[in-house]
Amino acid sequence: MRVSWNWLREFVEVTLSPEAVAERLTQAGLEVEAIEVVGEGLDQVVVGEVISVRPLSTASDLFLCEVTAGGEFPVNVITPLPVLAGQRVAVALLGARLPTGAEVRLVEIGGQRSQAKICSEADLGLGTNDKEPLRLPLQLALGLPVAQALAVSDTILDVAVTPNRGDCLSVLGIAREIAALTGSRLRRPRIRVAEQGTATERFIRISIAPDAACHRYVARVFTDVEVGPSPLWIQYRLKSVGLRPINNVVDVTNYVMWERGQPLHAFDYDRLPAHEITVRHASAREEFITLDGGSRLIEPGDLLITSGEKTIALAGIMGGAGTEVSEATRRVLLESAWFVPSAVRRTAKRLGLKTEASYRFERGVDIEGVVVAADRAGALLSEVCGGRASASPLDVYPRPHASVPIPVRIAKVQSFLGLPMGRQEVVGCLRPLGFDVSPAPRGTVSVTPPSYRLDVEREIDVIEEVARVVGYDRLPATLPRSTLGGNGLGQVERTFRQIRRLLTSLGLYEAIPLAFASAEENRDFPGVVPGRRAVELLNPLSREDAEMRLSLLPGLVRATRHNLSQGAEAVPLFLLGKVFWRGEEGDYREQVHLAGTICPRFAEHGVGWRKERIGFAQVKGVVESVLQFLRTPLPKYVRVPELRTFHPGKAASVEIDGRRLGVIGALHPRLEKRYQLASPCWVFELDLETSLQYRRRGFAVQSLPRFPAIKRDLAVVVDEGFEAGNVIDFIRQWEPGTCVVEAVELVDEYRGSPIPVGDKSLTYSVWYRSLERTLTDEEVNDVHDRLSRALAQRFEVRLR
Amino acid sequence: MLEGLEGLYRDALAALQKAKSAAEVERLRIRYLGRQGEITLLVRSLRDLAPEERPRVGARLNVVKEALETEIRRALERVRAIEEEEALARDRVDVTVPGRRRALGALHPVTQTIEEILDIFVALGFEVATGPDIEDDYHNFTALNFPPDHPARDMQDTFFVDGSYLLRTHTSPVQIRVMETRTPPLRIVVPGATYRHDDDLTHSPMFHQIEGFMVDERISMADLKGVLAYALRALFGPETRLRFRASFFPFTEPSAEVDIACLICGGKGGECRVCKGSGWLEVLGAGMIDPNVFSAVGYDAEKVSGFAFGLGVERVAMLKYQIADIRTFTTNDLRFLRQFV
């Protein structure tokens, strides 16, 4: 909320600078986000009169004028603005520096000199109109600085008012706060409404339906109103706080709203359907045209202002086009009312119609200030539109406000704030805020907040007020005495940290993309377990981010594409994060996954790495490292040509106990193309949360063997399609009898002469060991021969 | 016969000392001790001497011969050592050739910042808890004292997934989830992703928060100040100046915002663009847990009290590393990430 310093000073006698006041307000919870000086640089701009005007030349759009600013001789001015002789205008003298940054210099065009500048509203930083001269009232003295003439020299404080402080959404509210915080005196300018003879009840009848969310409705009628532009001082004051001047009647209602925090509405009295007003909730759907021209659908329950059974306003939000004040308006009905915040909010929110009025009603206006605001508006309407006020305004106020005293324990204040303070100090904090404080028994005081402090209901709310006035900076800082215990990081967080570090050591960079995905991405990357239903957002920012990711891959793919487009030649990324889906019962599920993309290779240092292409084995190695770190049982890697995300020949699922924990593979070339990736784009994704369940914790070491192992190699020639893991699995479970197979490893894979085309040679090393004795060569040769024969029997392999 | 012997020996020694290669030493050995070597010839000529002279001359000759053999052996060792050194010196590598290795990856700055902050609080006895990203309205708002139809809900633009579920707008719902299942004393920190319907230079639709709270008997606002001052100084440096000021959050009363003196201008303000001239940077929101929150979880606000705080991880990282655009975090440009190795 923007407040004018000049305006504030009509309500509070403050000697501090705007900066000092801003600091104090900020400390007390009304954060001043900006301090803006307006009307600066206007001291060299004065009121002038146009004496004569003629076109500069036939071919030019420029005018040559003679202008006087009193006293001295008239000066010549060349201007593009359409001016007329006799007008009073703002004249910037030579050397003046305008708020726009422009400096006024002597110019010569077509042999004529321009010795000053006639300013538009925009030139002076007072508005946006740069097509017309700013026209000043004729009664202003020539030579008077414009800043002074318009009272535009001002400082604007931009205050962030939190939702609990509806009472501060006004000049008066902030003035009250400044007075309390700085010990300044509050001013209460007297308001006098010039009433005419006729009583308001002769013009209008007001009723509030018994169940209506309206606790007070004040009305008065103004006759002989002349609708036109507001005086400049009202216009500029409204503009300076960000409001658009419309006409004098509407401007007055806005002016008083800004000053008092009470939204007002002016109806054209003669366009009311009947001479009565009823405040009630809608009972049926209806279409309603608001004064901004919009068509609104009213739902049953919305709070309405009606007249003669017809809706004339959405209570507290906006009036209707049918009763809007216009140039033709002669009689005005002024409404000042109090509506229940939640009722206004519900309708405003549903209609997406947020107005300055609804904003204030939602946050609660002062029910005891409704009449004063109406009076203030009445006084101003008489002053600026010539309106004559009806006598005895109507005030329907069925349930007057009753403040409830709050008992506050002084000891509680002390212990809660950790600050030793006595009763007098507590009272001294509260009274300047307008709280009524009276002594009460047993170390308590009875505190009654003013009617505008709807946020103060409980002892704790009062304690906060004390803390605010004392200043948080003056509270002590202590470390709490604490009990031992606590689980610290916890097992899971610690494991995640270790895995992240493992992956960075393996050469992967951690990415944290948005957790959203498009519907297309979720279709292309359905996750470790395809077929899950994605979680859709009701109000996504864009189609691209319309759903929650089913897989970590879309985000990694986006990051990969970005990096490739930036010229990266190796993009190795990983991500440890959640995936989301809807469960069978429509419930929401989330699970921590670990995924990586390596496209088209790892980033390395040193000579020669660019020539290397990485293959499935390197990516599988990353997954194996993670699972080895977790000490899971050895997984099975099963070909998955059916997964459409992957190259049908280059992908595997990672399975433990027949359960799929992850996938590894090259993306399908179709997707590499669709997502503008380099080829190959290797990826893996692991259901980390489930993998953790297979984690082996705690174990006893195996004692070191006393007898040596003996290694034998075994080379077989097989068909290209033969899977090397078959042999490993077979050897692992093979029982030689006299000793054990301790380990088996595939150590070489060879294609080429003398191996026939379409075949490959696989070389395995096998380690045999006995736990009882040192094996002899003969023994091992015998065992190894038997193994070779068993293999040849089991598989289509030829021994080399 | 012995007259020339001393001179011969001295010449041989001098020549051996000058020898630079094994070949040269070998040539000298042949010259003196070879089949036609000078010493060999002298030994051979012993038989020309009178028998009574032979033993004396022979013994003398033998001494010189053995001495010379030793010297030759030594010379050979010496020149071999030199030759070996020279050969090794020629067999050398270019030590300026870069190391051959997989480039070391990096943790994302958001992760690094979360770890740093969690470590500070863990050292103070806090423990880590987590909760779901897709949260229900009750835990995200209602239980945290955001009544339905209250404008405080406008403070947090929300992504909805259906009428009653949403993407959590803060990590505070985990406060409720922890308190629903456990009893005080509690010291908890909650890292996690949070979501707001917002996208510009300083707002990302997804960002990270660390929520923390402490509940026990007689926790005061002075304790809140003490703990947060300790943590912020651990994070931003021991000399960091702090400012606590009043604010509003529905789930705390009193509520506070905590500023640190601007890291760029040192709190001077003026033309500083980082703090916009105020000299202060807002780093976290905090407050004493509102009694309504305690009632929502069945705690007795007359028996326990506590404080809670929430801190934006990206905000902290932006301040620490002078990052201007919050979207830098989600773009994951390697040239950015690599700087955090």
Give a structural overview.
The complex is a heterodimer of chains A (800) and B (341). By secondary structure, chain A is an alpha+beta fold. Chain A is built from 20 helices and 43 strands. In chain A, the strands form eleven sheets. Chain A has a seven-stranded mixed sheet with strand order 30-33-34-39-38-37-36. In chain A, strand 33 (571-582) and strand 34 form a beta hairpin. By secondary structure, chain B is of the alpha+beta class. Helix content of chain B is 40%, strand content 20%. The mean pLDDT of chain B is 92. In chain B, helix 1 runs parallel beside helix 4 (54-90). The radius of gyration of chain B is 43 Å and the shape is rod-shaped. At the A-B interface, helix 7, helix 8, helix 10, helix 12 and helix 13 of A face strand 1, helix 5, strand 2, strand 5 and strand 6 of B.
Concise synopsis of the structure shown:
With 800 residues, chain A is an alpha+beta fold. Helix content of chain A is 26%, strand content 29%.
Identify the strand order in the major beta sheet of chain A.
30-33-34-39-38-37-36
Shape by Cα distribution of chain A: elongated
Number of strand segments of chain A: 43
Instruction: Name the beta content range of chain A.
Output: 25-35%
* Estimated radius of gyration of chain A: 41 Å
Question: Could you tell me how far the N terminus lies from the C terminus of chain B, measured between alpha carbons in angstroms?
Answer: 83 Å
- Tally of individual helices of chain B: 12
